[in-house]
Amino acid sequence: MSGGYGTLYLCATPIGNLGDMTFRAVEILKKVSLIAAEDTRHTRKLTSHFDIHVPLTSYHEHNKNTKGPELVAKLLAGQDVALVSDAGLPGISDPGEDLARLAIEAGIIVTPIPGACAALTALMASGLPTGGFLFVGFLPKATVARRNRLQLLRSYTETLLFYESPHQLLKTLSELQTVLGDRLAVIGRELTKIHEEFRRAHLSELTESFRQQPPRGEFVIIVAGKDGEVELPDNMKAPLTDESIRQEVARNIAAGENKKDAIRMTASKMGVSRRRVYQLALDSG
Q: Is domain 7-116 given the CATH code 3.30.1390.20 in the classification?
């Protein structure tokens, strides 16, 4: 405590796999007086899994202006409060940053409890340069603001990291290509979950791929910086279309592999899920 005040803990939670919850995070959530959650229904599943019996209260974009001061008042009264988002790090692309600022201004200690982060999880497996990167998060919703933001990013040489929802993915990929050019990019989908998938290609190819297979899940888009493209390995240069996947399966079978191994090899080589490859192989007979 500082001057009898409580501590605000910014507590990371898993981005998909509950096994990524840290021991320290569980310990903190069990000892605080209150957990402020983006979605209490979602967080209750987490607390139930880890046998945490601490009261929950909602704190999100739509109530932050009223709930933020209420939480600060509890902290000033000596209660420890943990803030969690639905997944990953609170305060990163969510209203947690506002609560952290309010607490700091009030002289309250703010302590980060680190853990999983979707952007960095995708980046480290992307194959794109990691020595310098710029986290953009979600682009603005308004068309003009989105375009202006992308125009500012055109000159950055660092790898660019974006978050996107499934219903906006195709629009964003198209805008990225229009403003930034047809750069090399990587899409991470459903990270740490059963259907985790990475697709590595140029923006035009990724757009075509998701036109053929409607996007589902949560996405991280990683785009090469200006003049920072790296050469794709030969096994990643084929466009990620249904037909190119079928052709790769057929090539593996022609080379003497059985169908099961041909599907497994194709999924690994092209960075797509085995389920997708299996379904395409099934459809083609």
A: no
